[in-house]
Amino acid sequence: MAQKEKKQTAVLNHIAVYVADLQKATDFYHGIFDLEIIPEPFKDGRHTWFTLGPAGQLHLIQGAKASTVHDKNEHLCFSVPSIETFIKKLNSKNINFEDWGGTAKGITNRADGIKQVYFKDPDGHWLEVNDDK
What we know:
Layout: E1 14-19, H1 22-33, E2 36-38, E3 47-51, E4 57-62, E5 75-79, H2 83-92, E6 108-109, E7 115-120, E8 126-130
Parallel strand pairs: 1-4, 5-8
Antiparallel strand pairs: 2-3, 3-4, 6-7, 7-8
Protein name: VOC family protein
Domain VOC: 11-132
Pfam families: Glyoxalase (PF00903)
């Protein structure tokens, strides 16, 4: 029997997030997620690049005109080893979070046992953090 050759699939390279205040957004993502800043080629003061390890990169781009209302269904998701420890970090930084339904300080417990919280970055982009193993 002939073996089927596996097709090469596309892989994620980066996610770009348009922000109004680059320094504020950079401080937020670095401070909340401990992301490592990596060199960016433009060197124009309008970009911050973070590594996301094997998942790719997160690019923050200065230039958004105003805060926009974003739907929670459109969000970035990060996994952490302990949702409880992460919630303590959010509380220490006075960052409001909620469950999927919008209950303040709530935690969503998915049917598969994964715990999730949702909150917004300084530009109103929704973020999910879960303890997916």
